[in-house]
Amino acid sequence: EQPVLEPVLPAPAEEQNGTDSAKAPKVNCEERNTTSIDRFTLQILNVSQDLMEFLNPNSSDCTLVLFYTPWCRFSASLAPHFNSLPRAFPTLRFLALDASQHSSLSTRFGTVAVPNILLFQGAKPMARFNHTDRTLETLKDFIFNQTGIEAKSDVAVTEEDWEGPLPSVLTKGIDWLLLFSVLFLAGFVMYATVRTESIRWLIPGQEHEHQE
Fold it and tell me: Which residue spans traverse the membrane (predicted)?
C-alpha cells in the first residue's frame, strides 16, 4: 500500500494576525527632524535642570533616559555604549542624569538601583531596560523591539565614546543620602536600646496594658 500524504493546511487567520501584532512596535515614536542637527550626542542634565522640562507631555516623540552615578562601576562600563547611541538612532533623543542629584526623580520612577534606563514617550515612561548585559548591541535590540526603529549599521563604540560626554572613569564621591540614612538608622537603634520605655507607645496595646 502506498502511504497517504495529508496536505499541510495554512495557519488560521487569527494566528497569522497574532504573529503580525507580536512583531509590531510596542511604542509608536514620532521621529524628530534631523536636517538641522550637525552632531548627534548625549545630553547630561546638571543638578539645576529638571527632567520634566526636557520631556514634552503633548508630544509622541521618544527619549531614552539613563539614571547613573559617577562612582558606580556598572554606570562607568555602560558609559561608552550609551554615548554611541545618539549616532545609531539620530531620530531619537538621549538624556542622562546623576541619580544622586535627582533623588526625587529616582523615587518617582523607581530607579533606586543604577544604572537604570527608561524609554519615555512624551513625559510617560513606557519601558525599562532590564538586561544585565549592557552593550551597544543589546541597547540597539531593546530600542528596536520597543519602537521598531532600526539602528544605523555603521555605528560602533569609538575612543571618543570612552572619553565622554558620559564619564567612563570612576570618580570618588560620597552618597550623602545613603550616609545620612545609615547614621539615622544607627542613632535610632542606639536610642531604642538605651531608652526602651520611651518607645513603648510604638507598640499597639502596650499603653492600655500598662494603665491596667
Answer: 176-194
